[in-house]
Specification:
The protein is α+β, with helices and mostly antiparallel strands. The chain is built from 21 helices and 24 strands. The chain has a domain of 320 residues: Bira Bifunctional Protein, Domain 2 (BirA Bifunctional Protein, domain 2), CATH 3.30.930.10. The protein is 34% helix and 22% strand. InterPro entries: Aa-tRNA-synt_II, aa-tRNA-synth_II, aa-tRNA-synth_II/BPL/LPL, Asp-tRNA_synthase_2, Asp/Asn-tRNA-synth_IIb, LPG_synthase_C. One of its GO terms (cellular component) is cytosol.
């Protein structure tokens, strides 16, 4: 698997496939230098430590520079322009680029190699575009001429067609590209045509690539004249239309590989532009000084080497094109010892430790306290009325289950310290089998519980069809996502306001009543078959929940989010996120982003949206090939019928990552009756029409 390959990178780099990738990468760098030197460019080496803010609004890595704040450069842009101001004429660089953006996608790295150039312009910014177009075609031609053997080797593992490009590259105005998309029937996620003054999202770029391939027959093209709102402060406005800029993006196989254009070279215009964007010119003194002394008209662009390689060879993931990948999950820190939220509810050292609990008159700690100490999202379902709780009398550990059609449907991990899982599970299973006489099934448990159940002691069969969708609220890439921020601005303009009831603050009865009424509106508005783990009971365990809601300009409640406090390891759960009927567009995005920022401000580093269905069944332990095929086929049919795998693009933009959770069952314990019990267990029990 990709994960195994990257976890054993040195071994993977010994393969013919990996070595072919990096031979081609080496060739691209050489051809980049060869072409630009032939065009009169000089290679430069710009500093990667800078003292000022970033030039384009991208997040930067902060470093301690002898007790003073500094940053890793997120591009050589400013230094390139300073060289043009110093009459270098034409310059290029191959160097490291750093982006402190929490983007866990197939095409983003926190460190990558930039191929950058900048040049003085004589008459028109398309002079830059002509150089870049010639450069790309030179590199494409040279790669296919010099690395055919490597490309054919790669195609065995990454099947793809050779790149198609035209002698005359299509240069399409941005507005025309949007019209092509809209005329093809493409719509945004709200079902509306794309606006001509907003930047494209990734999914829009990919779709436009398909449309252009059909219309022009090419994998390589240019979008020109980008809207001003989609460009950094130094982009030169079009002289005839200030709403657009003399800037362009170059695309390969439907994804952007270069962003470039003409820069503002007039100091007064640059200062005015920075002030308009509420930037302080004083933070970029050295940069601004170059323009004060006079600078020629100029422009340029930057290529991500690894992204270009990924798209050229159709590798599918930029990590395959990166020697030693660096993404937000790289360089993991050693785990910090975390304190229990309720030390008096410890299962390792219960209050009655060393004495008889009954004789001492001590009660078992509440399930709510155990969830706050040891729980994950699935454990919050134990507060539902249908759930029974088994307790370990010696430690206070708990396991929740629902008796259902002759089965004990057990959900989530045991509520105790992980070192006690084996003991707790053994005691619970003995109770279920001997005292209750029903069959156990275990659902939505984490990897540690799955390891215990699949061990030689229990020998259960395991597989995964779901995952917790976790994110770090303090490193939220959605704060830089254009689409989400546009929606939030729209909601703000519509008069949407956020209201909070933090942890420990009681929600007034009149607010509860209004929210309950809106929940009934939401329930009545649902359509189709509902599949979920819990019904909506907003006022359970209020001591471990905080509440956020939005109102519209008329004061009507239009959205509601509940954040449930979990164990210190798991942080918080977005327990419910309800976009009520009639809510203005962007209201729910505003509310969720606000709720995440609130828990982040409190020090939270982990939030889960709860379990979400996976696209396919992944075997765990003790399953044979025939059984895997049968279960996979059954899951595919169920997931298709119930549309379980419709993923939330919003959650992906928040940086949510899948953490697998498992279905576990004893030998011969999952026949047709067990499958039926699981399916009916998740069916809707709160039908507003019944």
């Amino acid at each position: 698997s990709d994960r195994t390959r990257l976890a054993n990178r040195i071994v993977d780099l010994r393969t013919n496939t990996s070595q072919s990738i990096f031979r081609v990468q080496s060739g691209i760098s050489s051809f980049f230098r060869e072409y630009l030197r032939g065009q009169g460019f000089m290679e430069i080496h710009t500093p990667k430590l800078q003292g000022g803010a970033t030039e384009s609004g991208a997040s930067v890595f902060k470093v301690d520079y002898f007790g003073r704040p500094a940053f890793l450069a997120q591009s050589p842009q400013l230094a390139k322009q300073m060289c043009i101001s110093a009459d270098f004429g034409r310059v290029f660089e191959i160097g490291a680029v750093f982006r402190a953006e929490n983007s866990n996608t197939h095409r983003h790295m926190t460190e990558y190699t930039g191929l950058d150039l900048e040049m003085a312009i004589d008459e028109h910014y398309h002079e830059v575009l002509r150089v870049l177009d010639g450069l790309f075609k030179f590199m494409f031609k040279k790669v296919y001429e010099n690395y055919r053997h490597e490309i054919d080797t790669l195609k065995q593992h990454f099947p793809h067609e050779d790149l198609v490009w035209l002698d005359k590259t299509p240069i399409i105005p941005f507005a025309e590209g949007i019209r092509l998309l809209n005329e093809s029937g493409w719509r945004d996620e709200n079902g509306k045509p794309l606006p001509e003054d907003e930047d494209l999202g990734t999914r829009d770029e990919i779709q436009l690539g398909k449309v252009i391939k059909q219309v022009y027959g090419t994998d390589y093209y240019v979008l020109d004249k980008f809207p001003a709102g989609a460009r950094p402060f130094y982009a030169m406005p079009d002289p005839n239309n200030p709403k657009i800029t003399n800037s362009f993006d170059i695309f390969l196989r439907g994804q952007e590989i270069l962003s470039g254009g003409q820069r503002i070279h007039d100091e007064k215009m640059l200062t005015k532009q920075m002030e308009r964007l509420k930037m302080d010119p004083n933070t970029l003194d050295e940069y601004m000084q170059g323009f004060a002394w006079g600078a020629p008209p100029h422009g340029g662009g930057g290529i991500g080497l690894e992204r270009m390689l990924m798209l050229l060879l159709s590798l599918g993931d930029i990590r395959h094109a990166t020697l030693f990948p660096r993404d937000p999950k790289s360089l993991p820190a050693k785990p910090v010892v975390k304190q229990l939220r309720h030390p008096e509810a410890s299962t390792l050292h219960p209050p009655w430790e060393g004495q008889d609990r009954h004789a001492a008159g001590m009660e078992l700690p509440s399930v709510e306290m155990l969830i706050a100490n040891y729980g994950d999202a699935s454990n919050t379902s134990w507060l539902e009325p249908r759930t029974e709780i088994w307790r370990d009398d010696a430690t206070g550990a708990a396991v929740g289950f629902v008796p259902h059609q002759g089965y004990a449907i057990t959900v989530g991990d045991p509520l105790c310290h992980k070192s006690q899982y084996a003991r707790t599970i053994a005691g619970y299973l003995h109770y279920i089998k001997k005292e209750r006489g029903i069959k156990p099934l275990w659902l939505l448990c984490g990897g540690d519980t799955e390891e215990v159940l699949s061990s030689h002691r229990f020998d259960w069969r395991t597989f995964s069809v779901a995952a917790e969708q976790r994110l770090d609220p303090g490193n939220n890439p959605a704060v830089h996502d254009h689409d989400i921020q546009r929606k939030i601005r729209h909601a703000s303009k519509e008069g949407v306001k956020v209201h909070d009831y933090p942890l420990g603050t009681p929600v007034p009865a009149e607010i509860k009543k209004k929210i309950d009424g809106r929940i009934q509106d939401w329930l009545a508005n649902r359509k189709g078959k509902q599949v979920h783990l819990t019904d909506i009971h907003p006022w359970q365990d209020e001591a471990h929940r905080q509440y956020h809601y939005t109102t519209d300009k008329d004061g009507k409640i239009v959205g509601f989010v509940i954040m449930a406090q979990l164990s210190p390891d798991h942080g918080w759960q977005v327990k419910f996120s309800l976009d009520f009927p009639g809510a203005p567009s962007g209201a729910i995005e505003m509310l969720v982003m606000h709720a995440l920022s609130q828990v982040a401000a409190g020090g939270a580093t982990s939030v889960t949206f709860g379990g979400g269905a996976s696209s396919k069944l992944t075997p765990g332990h003790n399953l044979k090939g025939t059984r895997i095929k049968v279960l996979s086929k059954a899951y595919h049919a169920i997931a298709t019928e119930l549309k379980l795998t419709a993923k939330s693009e919003f959650r992906e933009k928040l940086g949510a990552q899948d953490d697998p959770i498992y279905v576990c069952y004893p030998p011969h314990g999952l026949g047709p009756g067990g499958v039926k019990a699981i399916l009916t267990f998740f069916e809707d029990t709160e039908d507003p029409n019944s």
